[in-house]
């Protein structure tokens, strides 16, 4: 029997476009009032962990779809069809038939009426460090196993009947104290109470030497739930060592981490170790797990709030010397950028920075492209072809993902720079405020097309190399001898590219000369921090002891006449 061609084509069209759709809702038992937020739908091929834990930049990532929803009422459904943007597949219609594990999350947004007159909806940090997977109060569903069938039309209902629990506050110990203050500056900016916190490691003998005043080191980095890497007890001999860390290709890393924490305690309490305060700051905000420790049009005056509100309170409570010659800062990755930025933007307030594997410190080497000359962030473009830009690599140069793929994951997680992830926080910190109250896009998040006007704003306000070049006449005398930068030459995120440019400047600048230090780890990945004698998986655990000798030398040669160099050297 022969079928007419139009009938065959019509049948094919219906089969090809038949698809599965999803509805997501929450019951009144979870909230009787409407909620705002980003509804996330995740499909995974494996049940080794919850689907929400499998979203990543890796090739094995789960599939993610995201949709903004304002004023969702109890039992009101949010529809997910072929038009909803996804990562890594763009649309539900692109999913292959087969079995999947499905989960949904509602990342809650709150309304902020800022001082600048803008009203925005953002995910307030709730003590978790801006993590949509674990944020207290976020609703989620239990994983559901489904089967997508070729050519059939299905509708799957997903119910957000679970809620993330609150996070317990860390408790004080003999050595580790916790402080939290309401910031006047940030409260005024955000139009609601906003807080800064810190974990403070006290020196041995703090209580026994009330006359002592101490230097202070800020250990910058991502959101710390407590002061990490310090333990008064050694790991038990029977501690399991079967855990395998893919990144370092070793077994038993948890025990090594525990042993390093105890070794640090022994050094910290040893007779000849310098007595000082080490501080880890909590400055999570509605865009990210930390603020980058600078003033920003979109985040507010975090730099000033940390510098002129939080630090004075810490030094008051814990007897800090409270002068620039006795303050130092260090950190890696985000913390590396923050350490250098704090030294550049507050040059008189710090006596040295140790910046390891810093986020891009020169935007003409913004990872793998030039923000000022290139037209597209995702592709190198010629007259006849477009080559994708790599986003991450290993020490052999093998590419893990592209810049486009990472940005599309962020776009699925949140519009308006609200993904809580890396490229979005750079945009939130560095960009001017847009007409809608959200950060102006540095590039089109979908296509990668760069906005030159926004790039110019970034250069003038946050390109650390540009700022040092532009202002060296006044900055140079204040930062000479204070800058130390370390980076692996195979950094996974290509952060060494900007370091090369910074090194060229620091080596050649005069009046005054920079008297700086820049060092590279051969074939070292992210985040190499300056010790060529140890593997990176060990040195990354030793930030708080690695730079002590250089700090002490700097204090000896730069402390003003009459400075207190003795009360803390017991």
From TrEMBL:
Question: Which first-to-last residue range defines the signal peptide?
Answer: 1-18
Chain ranges passing through the membrane: none
Instruction: Answer yes or no on keyword DNA damage.
Output: no
- Write out the entry's keywords from A to Z: Signal
InterPro entries according to UniProt = AB_hydrolase_fold, Mycobacterial_A85_antigen
The protein in question is named Esterase
Q: What is the lineage of its organism?
A: Bacteria, Pseudomonadati, Bacteroidota, Cytophagia, Cytophagales
């Amino acid at each position: 029997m022969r079928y007419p061609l139009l009938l065959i084509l019509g049948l094919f069209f219906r089969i090809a476009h038949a698809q599965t759709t999803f509805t997501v809702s929450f019951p009144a038992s979870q909230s009787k009032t409407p909620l705002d937020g980003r509804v996330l739908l995740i499909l995974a091929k494996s049940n080794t962990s919850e689907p929400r834990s499998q979203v990543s930049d890796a090739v094995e990532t789960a599939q993610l779809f995201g949709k903004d929803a304002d004023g969702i009422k109890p039992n009101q459904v949010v529809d997910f069809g072929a038009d909803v943007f996804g990562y890594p597949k763009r649309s539900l219609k692109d999913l292959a038939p087969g079995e999947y594990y499905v989960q949904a999350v509602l990342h809650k947004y709150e309304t902020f009426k800022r001082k600048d007159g803008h009203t925005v909806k953002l995910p307030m940090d709730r003590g978790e460090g801006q993590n949509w997977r674990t944020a207290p109060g976020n609703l989620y569903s239990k994983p559901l196993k489904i089967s997508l069938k070729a050519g059939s039309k299905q509708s799957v209902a997903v119910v957000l009947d679970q809620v993330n629990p609150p996070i317990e506050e860390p408790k004080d110990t003999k050595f580790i104290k916790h402080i939290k203050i309401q910031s006047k500056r940030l409260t005024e900016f955000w139009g609601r109470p906003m807080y800064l916190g810190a974990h403070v490691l006290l020196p041995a003998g703090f209580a026994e030497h009330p006359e002592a005043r101490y230097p202070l080191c800020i250990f910058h980095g991502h959101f710390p739930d407590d002061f990490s890497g310090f333990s008064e007890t050694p790991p038990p001999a029977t501690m399991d060592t079967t855990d395998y860390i893919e990144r370092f290709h070793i077994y038993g890393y948890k025990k090594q981490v525990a042993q390093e924490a105890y070794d640090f305690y022994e050094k910290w309490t040893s007779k000849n170790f310098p007595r000082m305060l080490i501080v880890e700051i909590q400055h999570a905000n509605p865009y990210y797990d930390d603020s980058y420790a600078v003033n920003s049009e979109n985040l507010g005056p975090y730099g000033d709030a940390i510098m002129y509100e939080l630090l004075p309170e810490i030094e008051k409570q814990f007897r800090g010397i409270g002068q620039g010659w006795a303050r130092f800062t260090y950190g890696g990755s985000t913390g590396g950028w923050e350490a250098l930025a704090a030294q550049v933007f507050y040059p008189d307030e710090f006596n040295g920075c140790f910046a390891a594997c810093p986020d891009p410190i020169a935007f003409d080497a913004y990872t793998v492209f030039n923000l000022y000359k290139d037209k597209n962030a995702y592709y190198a473009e010629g007259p006849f072809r477009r080559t994708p830009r790599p986003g991450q690599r290993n020490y052999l140069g093998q590419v893990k993902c592209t810049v486009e793929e990472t940005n599309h994951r962020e776009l699925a997680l949140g519009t308006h720079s609200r993904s809580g992830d890396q490229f979005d926080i750079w945009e939130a910190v560095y960009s001017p405020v847009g007409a809608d109250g959200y950060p102006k896009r540095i590039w089109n998040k979908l296509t990668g097309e760069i906005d030159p006007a926004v790039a110019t704003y970034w250069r003038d306000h946050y390109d650390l190399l540009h700022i040092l070049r532009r202002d060296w006449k006044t900055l140079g005398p204040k930062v000479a001898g204070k800058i130390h930068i370390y980076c692996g030459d195979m950094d996974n995120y290509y952060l060494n590219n900007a370091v090369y440019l910074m090194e060229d400047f620091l080596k050649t600048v005069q009046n005054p000369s920079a008297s700086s230090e820049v060092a590279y780890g051969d074939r070292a990945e992210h985040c190499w921090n300056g010790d060529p004698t140890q593997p990176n998986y060990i040195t990354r655990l030793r930030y708080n002891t690695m730079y002590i000798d250089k700090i002490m030398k700097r204090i000896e040669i730069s402390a003003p006449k009459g400075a207190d160099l003795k009360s803390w050297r017991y």
